[in-house]
Design a protein that fits this description.
eight-stranded antiparallel β-sheet, Beta-galactosidase, Chain A, domain 5, single chain, Immunoglobulin-like, globular
Length: 449
């Protein structure tokens, strides 16, 4: 217990100390196994296209010829450190299939219980397998999520990099997705690169798209919230009649008293872009006590959210009632932007993902830490700091309107022990600042105009 001015505070670890994870003997390791998933027999229903088809030479799908689901076995790469386990499916689009937070036991991504061709995407069909896919070279889901990708694993001291690669059939451009995991961190890096090795320019869209359901329910619950630090969004597509048409802006998150950050309030699916580059964005599910933040550092041009609603028919993509939301990071601001990639040039985007739990309402995130608020009312609040790496002898400072409320003694911060600081004041987000060893992790403003 401490006293700073007229304000008392108490800091504590947000979870019992017994949940702290021991050091991982190998720092970071990888191994392969297999996974069996019920898979509709869609390959016999693929229809070869002709040069006058805009998706040529990628196939269309004759739904009448799709066979029933049968067990199919796929390669599964496992990469893990003390805090995270990452699963990859190279044969299904080179995707990052799942992320498991080993401290909480929670999963980050949606996992479709069946591999089923949906009617979505530019080809007229798409495999909503789950996890993180690489949407290249067009808008929506691209063309490459169903094809096998080459996979290489490189280990350098305490870092493992998983490199998935393929070449587009239309342009011949090389697509490379690299996921990096370092020992003793609960964050992982993602880099998507397209190399134009041809002798002419090609129009290009490139996005990473993650299908997210934090926790163990594998569906979007009523307490899931998008966290997008902007005051407006741009409609991509929607069934919600209160939103404006595509390419028009609307207020975020409140629209006519409705909190659009909560998908439970939607009257139909919503897809929307941020009008400006973001420092971060993410989701958090209070009931599951789990979420994620994607760090963009205002350097990634595109950020998009998508979700279904309670009125959407999940049988279009799955065989149960599971659903998900999507978080997109793009090399261009929207789906209406198709900047050409010149011959011999390269384009890339780099993001970092933080796996989060135990923080309450996610407020802000940087590469090193996230800040949340718990149990806030008119007289008190609890600020929770969750770091993405171990920081020894750290000093945490909480300020309100520039005036220091809390300065902790030196303590150890670690991903499996969120730090909770109980305050006898209830600052608004715009008033609150948090720093670790002098580096801000909660700025005083939500967004830059």
């Amino acid at each position: 217990m401490g006293n700073v001015g007229a304000h008392s505070f108490q800091w504590r670890y947000g979870r019992p100390l017994r949940s702290a994870l021991p050091a991982f003997a190998d720092g970071v390791t990888h191994y392969e196994r297999s996974i069996t998933l019920p898979t509709y027999d869609y390959t016999k229903a693929l229809v070869q296209t002709t040069p006058d088809d805009p998706i040529y030479p990628y196939p269309r799908l004759d739904r009448e010829r799709v066979g029933p689901p049968e067990p199919a076995t796929y390669r599964l790469l496992v990469v893990e450190n003390r805090f995270l386990q990452l699963l990859f499916l190279p044969e299904l689009g080179g995707r990052l299939y799942q992320v498991v937070d080993k401290a909480s036991g929670q999963r980050l991504f949606y996992q479709n219980p069946v591999i089923k061709p949906s009617p979505f995407g530019e080809r007229g069909w798409w495999l909503g397998v789950g996890g993180m896919e690489w949407a290249v070279p067009t808008q929506e889901h691209g063309y490459l999520e169903y094809v096998p990708w080459d996979m290489d694993v490189v280990q350098e001291n305490d870092i493992i990099m998983v490199r998935m690669s393929t070449a587009g059939l239309q342009s011949g451009m090389e697509v490379v997705a690299t996921v990096r995991l370092r020992a003793d961190e609960s964050r992982f890096g993602v880099r998507l690169i397209v190399n134009n090795t041809t002798d002419q320019a090609h129009p290009l869209q490139m996005w990473s798209n993650a299908m997210v359901t934090p926790g163990m329910a594998n569906r979007v619950g009523p307490d899931l919230r998008f966290v997008v630090p902007t005051d407006e969004m741009i409609t991509h597509a929607t069934q919600d009649g209160a939103l404006p048409p595509p390419q028009a802006s609307f207020p975020w998150p409140l629209l006519d008293g409705r909190d659009l950050a909560m998908p439970r309030t939607w009257n139909g699916y919503i897809g929307a872009f941020s009008p400006r580059p973001l420092p971060f964005f993410g989701v958090y599910d209070l009931a599951q006590d789990s979420g994620a933040a994607i760090i963009h550092n205002n350097e990634v041009p595109g950020a998009k959210i998508f979700g279904f609603s309670r009125t959407f028919d999940p049988s279009l993509y799955t065989d149960d009632q599971s659903d998900y939301v999507e978080l997109w990071s793009g090399a261009q601001p929207t789906f209406w932007d198709n900047p050409p990639l010149a011959a011999g040039d390269q384009r890339s985007i780099t993001t970092e993902w933080l796996s989060l739990w135990g923080i309450g309402d996610l407020q802000w995130a940087t590469s090193d830490a996230a800040v949340g608020l718990l149990d806030q009312d008119d007289t008190h609040s609890t600020v929770v700091v969750a770091t993405s790496r171990i920081i020894n002898d750290a000093t945490v400072v909480v300020s309100m309107n520039g005036g220091e409320l809390v300065r902790t003694a030196a303590l150890d911060l670690r991903p499996d022990q969120p730090l909770a600081i109980d305050l006898t004041v209830a600052p608004t987000l715009a008033e609150l600042q948090v720093s670790i060893n002098g580096l801000p992790v909660l700025p005083p403003m939500l967004f830059d105009n």
